[in-house]
Amino acid sequence: MMRAAAATTMKTTPSSYSYLTARKTMTQNNGTPAITIKNHQMDNINNNRRRRRQRILHIVSEGTGRFIVGGNWKCNGNRESVKALVDALNKNIANIEKNCDIYCCPTFLHLNYVKENLDTRFKVCAQNSWVEADLVDPEHHYDSTTGAFTGEISAEMLEDLQVPFVLLGHSERRTLLGDTDEIVGKKVAHARYHGLSVVVCVGETLEERENGTTFDVIFKQLKAVAKEIDDREHSSWGSSVVIAYEPIWAIGTGKVATPEQVQEVHSKIRSWLAENVSEDVAKATRIQYGGSVNASNCADLAKLSDIDGFLVGGASLNGDDFAAICNASSVHYKAVGR
Ligand code: PGA
């Protein structure tokens, strides 16, 4: 797929630019102060930063996109059980509200069967796509992922199969299969280049939450993605890049994060996007919560203004439960007055 060449640097807003410029004039190259900054001048700079952050928080208080629910089938299923799940989902289609986007992630092996047999209300989503870790591509395309790479699946193949979504950076891939923040960023850029919508998973371990580094970890994961998605992509980021916040300690453990914990992280992700990408992107980006979501706890979580949907593992393997979770969309719209 060809795209027009354009500048690859991320937009810098005028106010953050002037702050950075001011900082640069304060120190010489060797780090010694070039001018003396009086305390009240530093206070002014800090106050301006604080005001800007508050303005962003005020403007970008919640998302504007359609509710979106994903079913992550992980490494589960055989021909018989996948057929049974597809049949159960199709049977449920009449009970599922139309106000929600839905995607399902079967294994690569079952992807084509699911695509051909599942009702088109459910989009199919691959669980991964590949890029070479060492590839350096200033154009952010990483456009050479087919070839002698035994056992891998490329975004080109997903595009060819007309698979519209790909899930990237799931914590099981990060922790068990070596996906670094940097690789996830490259995978996102490459998949976007091939027209795929991406769901990018971020989240902290229990240890990271307990030692107070949750936001450092999540912002680093987001930064690696934002770095790779250049200006060309910003116009479509909002509808095509979904972020799934999945605290690792809540995945498959039955220990769901509290609504307060989820709302705090989601609103901080949105503010981070506003400050580091753009306010439009922050508003339009859907932020899903994932980690032990089920048919019983989804309604309480869906009431939160910054939850734009769910990424569901275990409970997505049951057609009735998954349909019930999709229908939490109506609870969400009612709660946020949309
Ligand atoms: P879980 O998995 O719903 O089984 O906790 C969520 C996920 O890993 O995406």
Report what the structure shows.
The chain has 338 residues and is of the alpha/beta class. It has 15 helices and eight strands. The chain has helices at 14-26, 39-59, 79-92, 108-117, 155-160, 171-176, 181-193, 206-210, 214-228, 231-240, 259-276, 279-284, 298-302, 319-326, 328-336; strands spanning 67-72, 100-105, 122-126, 165-168, 197-202, 241-245, 287-290, 309-312. An eight-stranded parallel β-barrel has the order 1-2-3-4-5-6-7-8, surrounded by seven helices. Residues 1-36 have low confidence and may be disordered. 2-phosphoglycolic acid binds next to strand 8.
SSE layout and pairing:
Layout (H helix, E strand, L loop, with lengths): L13 H13 L12 H21 L7 E6 L6 H14 L7 E6 L2 H10 L4 E5 L28 H6 L4 E4 L2 H6 L4 H13 L3 E6 L3 H5 L3 H15 L2 H10 E5 L13 H18 L2 H6 L2 E4 L7 H5 L6 E4 L6 H8 L1 H9 L2
Outline of this structure?
The protein has 338 residues and is of the alpha/beta class. The chain is built from 15 helices and eight strands. Helix 4 links the parallel strand 2 and strand 3 (122-126).
Structural class by sheet pairing and helices? alpha/beta
Low-confidence stretches: 1-36
- Using DSSP, what is the number of strands? 8
Q: How confident is the prediction overall: mean pLDDT?
A: 84
In this structure, how is the largest beta sheet organized? 8 strands, parallel, barrel
The neighbouring-strand order within the major sheet is: 1-2-3-4-5-6-7-8
Which small-molecule ligands are present, each listed once? 2-phosphoglycolic acid
Distance between the termini: 37 Å
Shape: globular
Portion in strands? 5-15%
